[in-house]
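Hi R.,

Quick one: here's the DUF116 domain-containing protein sequence you asked about.
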Amino acid sequence: MTDTQGTTTPPRKRLFISLMGFTCLLVVGLTFLAWWVPNRGLANIHPQLPHIVGIVVAVLSGVAILGTGLLVLTTALGKDIFFTRFMRLVVIKFLLPMIELVGRGLGLDKDSIRQSFIAMNNSLVISQRQKVKPDRILVLLPHCIQLFDCEIKVTGDIKKCVQCGRCDIKGLVGIGKKYHVDISVATGGTLARKVIVEKRPKLVLAVACERDLTSGIKDCYPLPVIGILNDRPFGPCFNTTVDINKIDEALSQVILQEEPASETA
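And here's the predicted structure, written out as tokens:
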């Protein structure tokens, strides 16, 4: 959520979870009506047909309610309970479009829903407790993270940075050295996808705005993506910043720390 100073406070999952629960009840209610209204018509075809269709509707409704409950428990506990990877597919491919539609109908801000979705996606990725080698992790940054008037463009190679400290690139170079991870700067979604295809990472940590992170998470599935929202003190796509500590914390939860080789006697 962005305040008047353009800084971003940690997004909360409760909005997405609330909308998910509301959408689940809405779908169950509509499904029940779809069964109940033509119920008498089904009886004219066969006396047992309303009962059979009713059982099918009840099972589907139970699956929807159970799935919603598992998602809430997984994100609340931060643990992989059951089928987390499959549930992430359901959230990204099916629930998100429905929830955005419901949120629009309720007059909710689109970016607030996206922030909540990104937070929930991060919880699902981290709850899998997947540990990835540093050379298979890609940190992907937007080009607007660099000062607009900087003469040295770091697109393609962040190590070109002269470490003047006027933008966050210096801190990000430090993160790259600390964890030995690959960091790339992309000028847009097309280049970002090209970088991912070329580098073939097992996990992506991406920094961007709500819109780009949401579309990137959807496009990259099943590749796990952790999204970190940038701060935009001067407006969108211009001299943006990012909280380095959030990147540090996220990497520390997913990176596989290799044991130092023991010295031979």
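Confidence is low (pLDDT under 50) at residues 1-6.

Cheers,
M.
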